[in-house]
Amino acid sequence: MSVSKKLKLGILVSGRGSNLQAIIDACEKNKIDAEVSVVISNNPGAFAMERAKKHNIPIEVVDAKNPEPEILQTLGKYRVDLVCLAGFMKILSPAFVKAYPAKIINIHPALLPAFPGLHAQKQALDAGVKMTGATVHFVDEGCDTGPIILQKSVPVLENDSLESLTQRILEAEHEIYPQAIQRIATGSLKF
Ligand code: GAR
To answer: In what order do the strands lie in the sheet with 131-138?
Structure first.
């Protein structure tokens, strides 16, 4: 596929950026027909920004309290086709979601609709489930409620700590996030 046909991704981050890294790696290895056009953070100290810099990807830091106007401006500037939330810890307003209809996706560390919202891994441990996982879904106006694109289940083991379960789920996240992007890039999936 020629470079011009690649899906242009705008990745929104707030923290560590391991999902961002998985997406960058998949793009660089040509595993997906996409390129990361810009990484946007509402947290100037996010380690995700260091990852982007290392790969010469443009970064933009937006206002932490009122990020949406700058995010919209930046997405337009880089002609982003698909917005990927990757550990972006702020809920987008209905107006923002309407501005990118069916073009915003999110990764969540549970098998939605189970355990939406914050601390999904702890919710799973507290509930005593034997199976949890990761979900990539389209973002709609609710919290973690949009149509599901891909899921991968992950066992909860007898002696799991929050850290060990979080790490096992993260590995599943890194697998399915690029796969979900590829489904959209190839047009095999529509919302
Ligand atoms: C990931 O586990 C992601 O699923 C979660 O934040 C983490 C970000 O890690 N997102 C949510 O909980 C959203 N509700 P990363 O910065 O290393 O990609």
So the answer is: 59-61, 34-41, 7-13, 82-85, 104-108, 131-138, 148-155
**Is residue 114 assigned to a domain?**
no
pLDDT band at 2 (very low <50, low <70, confident <90, very high): very low
Q: What pTM does this model have?
A: 0.96
- 146, 140 in Cβ contact below 8 A? yes
Position 120 in a domain: no
Tally of domains in the chain: 1
Interatomic CA distance for residues 174 and 131, integer angstroms: 18
How many angstroms is it from 118 CA to the middle of ligand 1?
10
Say if ligand 1 is within 6 A of residue 109 CB: yes
Question: Do the domain assignments include residue 57?
Answer: yes
Nearest residue by C-alpha to atom 8 in ligand 1: 87
Averaged pLDDT, 101-120: 97
* Active-site residue, from 108, 119, 137, 174: 108
CATH of residue 26's domain is: 3.40.50.170
Answer whether 16 contacts ligand 1 (Cβ < 6 A): yes
Domain span at residue 16? Answer: 7-107+135-151+173-185
Is 108 among the residues known to form the active site?
A: yes
